[in-house]
Amino acid sequence: MGQFNRHQDLSPTIGCDQSQHELDHANADLMRRSLLKTLGAAGLSLGLPFSLAHAGTAALSGASASPAASASSGATRQPILVVVELSGANDGLNTLVPYADDAYYRLRPRIGIRSEKVRKIDDRFGFNPSMSGFEQLFKDGKMAIVHGCGYAQPSFSHFTSAAYWHTAAPNTGEPYGWLGRVADAIDPQLTPNFLVNIDERQSLAVRSARHVPVVFDDPERFARKGLRQSRPLLDNAVAADAGSTSRKYLDEVAQSARQASHLVRTAWEGYKTPIDYGIISLDLPKVASMIHAGLPTRLFYVSYRHNAFDTHVQQAEQHGRLLSYVSDAIAGFIKDMQRIGRADDVSVLVFSEFGRRAAENTSLGTDHGTANHMYVIGNRVRGGHYGEIPSLTDLDEGGNLKFSTDFRRVYASVIEGWLGHADSKSLLSGSFDTFPLFA
């Protein structure tokens, strides 16, 4: 069931010299907080920015226009970023195969992909045979491949390493996600529906100090929860003209939740496309529907879930199938953006929480490793190879690739070069040289 998630601390700080008005306001905030907890326990899905001025008609701003009108308006031509997570640690070496390197076949005598089967993109690398979509995107100049991505003192735990990538703050315990911090920085006015996470539950990557991400899985079931008999009342409730500040706040919360779920469902119901996204679409048609409908969302987050890429045993067939889903879905999404006239406005970032060990294991699979590729895809991407390519003959003591590119360099490149926010240093708690990924 899709839901909104709220993480902000609404506790007021009350000083001894406050006026009665301030104290009343603080008490009202406490009452609101209590009401929200009560409603949360009852199963109400909430979605409300901090500024209540946005909770009413502002939540619908721009969404009622036709897709064509929205696409041509200046307000919706801002760059959009779609982040795709390949959960479970994708094997980079059998995704982008270094077919010209004999060391690759020495390390993987049984699961290495033979040169004649690889989808060659140059005289050194080629994609997995199942990745025709990625092959074409690269040859069309719409894909940047960043090599050797990782971080110092790597964790081999899926959960821990994913948290490091989600927060862009390895080994720190940072509570907010990197996309959540980006949203706060580039949209201080707290535009409703600015940050969307399509998943069964919210990713740490979108957790924000000020924004409330919209989180849902199935648009058709994305609605306020309640008993069947009470749903007409919930869906059509009108804010009461009451003197209670807490009641007014509660009404605005409910209205905001109804509006966001209504916008998502309306966008999905009105979306039709002839484009083939393949067998597993990675939720990208849902993203396309929201862009097509002209919603103000600029940051989307989707994930291939349930550690699908954790290929310890009999990897070859399973991995090829997974890669075909990813390749077909992303290639289809880029085609769909072209169809609706938004291809120049959208870029896709693809990552996994770590790579796999360079050598195959005895179960014809691969174990947890370190460095991996990241992919940045879109019409305005400067295609090609970026970063230093890790050596297959100079591995670390654990038999892993030595990372050559801090993954935050790619985040910084996207933040500055695509989203147009010059101060990536404050968002990433460090200065990272950017790549010239965008035209």
Give an account of the 3D structure:
The structure is a single chain. With 439 residues, the protein is α/β, with parallel strands linked by helices. Strands 1, 2, 6, 7, 8, 9, 10, 11, 12 and 13 form a ten-stranded mixed β-sheet that branches. The protein has a three-stranded antiparallel β-sheet with strand order 3-5-4. It has helices spanning 20-42, 67-72, 102-107, 132-139, 158-167, 178-186, 231-235, 245-269, 284-292, 315-339, 407-417, 424-428, and strands at residues 3-4, 80-86, 96-97, 119-120, 126-127, 143-150, 195-198, 214-216, 299-304, 346-351, 372-377, 384-386, 405-406. It is globular and about 75 Å long. The longest helix has 25 residues, at 245-269. It has one domain (21-428): Alkaline Phosphatase, subunit A, CATH 3.40.720. The model is unreliable at 1-76 and 224-228 (pLDDT under 50).
